[in-house]
Amino acid sequence: MEASLERQIGFLLETDKLKEVVRLNQLAGGNRRETTAEHCWHVILQTLTLAGHALPGTDIHHVIKLLAVHDLVEIDAGDHWVTDANRADIKAREQAAAERLFGLLPDDQASEFKGLWLEFEAGETPEARFANAMDALHPMVLVFASGQPEPTHEPLSADTMRQTKEARLSPFPGLWTYAQDLLAKAVRDGRLLP
Question: What SS3 state is found at 193?
């Protein structure tokens, strides 16, 4: 096998571990927590479905590429609710994971994939902003739009969630209004603290 193909296959086998990373939120059915691989697939499908909410000129194909790699670092760093107290530690762990994981690829692909991850993290391009909005909305859809009678999220307040999600969702007014409606309904239903 040629060396670059061998490295690509090694990367694919290593990233298969994303299927084992359990996230904090549950599936819409409420029977278990989702894996990060399931999240990545579903947020990509959500993006294709909600592409009409992107700003004009946004390259949805590029958004999909960003979302395909955005959480690979969770193989090493895990899934965390980011707070001021743990932000620096998580960033360092994710940076180390990016170096290791993307370093498995041939140099040109390693540079491309790491560049996609860095673009998503920076959130500055139209595509990265929409990818970040999709990533922020996805757990809210699973947790609060599911209609499950029992709380399916860690005990956080709607105010905390609103503050955390606003910067990523407010550039897309229809999505931001929907997200706020989800939070208000979750409070009314007793599924989320005010």
Answer: strand
Q: Which domain holds residue 58?
A: 3-188
The domain tally of the chain equals: 1
Q: Decide: 75 and 15 in contact? Cβ < 8 Å.
A: yes
Tens digit of each residue's pLDDT (9 = 90 or more) over 107-128: 999 999 999 999 999 999 999 9
Sign of CA dihedral 134, 60, 14, 76: negative
The 10s digit of each residue's pLDDT in 26-78 is: 888 888 889 999 999 999 999 999 999 999 999 999 999 999 999 999 999 99
CB 18 within 8 A of CB 71: yes
- Read off the CATH number of the domain in which 118 is found: 1.10.3210.10
Distance (Å) of CA 122 to CA 20, 43, 91, 117, 126:
26, 19, 12, 9, 11
Q: Is the pTM of this model over 0.85?
A: yes
Residue 193 resides in a domain: no
